[in-house]
Amino acid sequence: MAKSNDYNADQITVLEGLDPVRKRPGMYIGSTDSRGLHECLREIIDNSVDESFAGIATEVKVIIHADGSAEIRDNGRGIPTDMHKSGVSALELTMTKLHAGGKFGGGAYKVSGGLHGVGASVVNALSSYFRVVVLRNSKAFYQEYKRGVPVKKVTEASIKQLEDWGITAKGSGTITTFMPDKEIFKDLVFEKTKIKALLRDRAYLIAKLFFNFKDERDGDEMNFYFEGGIKSLVAHSNRGKNILSDVIYVENKDENNHCEVAIQYTDAFNENVKGFVNGIYTTDGGTHVTGFRTALTRSIMDYVKKQSNGKDEIILTGDDLKEGLSAVVYVKMPSETLQFESQTKAKLNNPEIQSFVAVTVKEGLDQYFEEHPQDVRHIIDKVTLAAKARLAARAAKDAVLRKGALDGASLPGKLADCQSRDATVSELYIVEGDSAGGSAKQGRDRKFQAILPLGGKILNTERAHLDKIVKFEEIKDLIIALGAGIGESLNYEKVRYHRVIIMTDADVDGEHIKTLLLTFFYRHMPEIIHKGYLYIALPPLYKISMGKESVYVYNDEEKETYMKTVVKEKKFTISRYKGLGEMNPTQLWETTMDPATRTLKQVTVENNEEASNMFTMLMGEEVPPRKKFIQTHAKLATLDV
Fold first, then answer.
1. Active site includes 509?
2. Is residue 422 annotated as a catalytic residue, yes or no?
3. In this model, does residue 500 exceed pLDDT 90?
4. Which residue from 19, 212, 406, 504 has the highest number of Cβ atoms inside 10 Å of its Cβ?
């Protein structure tokens, strides 16, 4: 018998067909969380969008059925169902084999959102049920699959089947229905807000393509159809903001590539730049976005230098140009030349497109700046102010954050640090008030839990420059405790805790402090969130005592359920915790800090644009949008996280 550490041919596993997808789904859809689930939907939707690029499809319909399955319909050409030279139908080949489809040099698509032979087959593999109905020449053919395996060969659908499926065999097109496999995605469900955002972006990008979305779970229905293109998309993203210029639009094309860029500056502090390739949103940017940034910096710097007439001008950096910038960079290119970093198409890697976009933007901006001096003046004033604030922040930071402090030699006096120096196991509790801070310090596990009490509400950092932020005592202590620096010196590798836990009272003031902290992290240390380091603690709201027995419950609904199902006729007393400071150290440990019994909620960002708009609306200077939001959602408000 071979030893366990032997390595020979018998230990080599060959995964056939779609087995690799089910074995390692994250390699194909990025993850098996909500993002991966919606990536599956995007893959199928973009196949239909590609039919529009081919000049055929004029409408795409997306339906979320009551059972949680998704259906995508288009009026394109329909996937071929005739026999392929491999011995199976073209439809089955496309849906069950990786790297099989009409976008691999076969001439069916010049421009597409990716290689749909990969995308559709991957979704098929990760679905407990998958059905494709193809309409061609007034006939309907279909094939059903289970976890990527065909249930039977391609078959002509009967009239009764089509009626049951709500399909009329007229015209041409493809109707794909799939149920995400719970073995892969657990209890995740499709979220209509994400689907609407996806369809809205596609509708802006592809003129005159009609999208219909229907959610049968609640009857919600919405249509998307725009003719203004990416100029309208940028204007839409800046609704409710004070704009500093009209939307600047530049375009260029050659025999292979087509580039469109829309740019607008607002008086906001945050940036919103989105890159698209053949209709695909590249969440991590890529060479097209890099080319845009390079050209934007050069154009503005050249203009500033020209206007200074040899006088000393302020040196601008790329970060200065980001403040208030909204832009969409959209390129279309032959599908066979596309180079993405992964199957999820999050980042474009084509090097040749960088220079193509850079030349397009540089020439377009130079011309616009010459023709619109008033607009460019507003932009220059904006980025110059950002540069001055950056220099002031550097000076202020040097004054209040000594090098020793950043290196951990002079930690804040109010910080009760943990013994561990291993950031991966260390936790920092940001606690509201000295009273709760005292209980937390006594009740914690000193080996890995650090406590930083806050004296009250911190500065609203939504519209604050760094020079003001680093002078605010409570935030300064937090920055020093985290150890990663701030602004230009920010280095996330130096973060001293990989769990940063916000622990506030379950009242209005506690919620406000929590929101202020979330604003600070989102605007000034966003990678703390993106790396998964930020959490919110869930302290109990009630203590139900029955003799010597006590139970903690975390919200009103849980209390009512417990009272009905457990307490019944027993004598009991209910104590409501108004604040964390009312708990003794033992209670705080048992309910909120003990890793074995506590409940933490991880802070994540699903949609950066929506999150940014929410912070702008809630924490910005404009009162009417915030007032409208509060009036609309007041009845839905809850103190539960």
1. yes
2. no
3. yes
4. 504
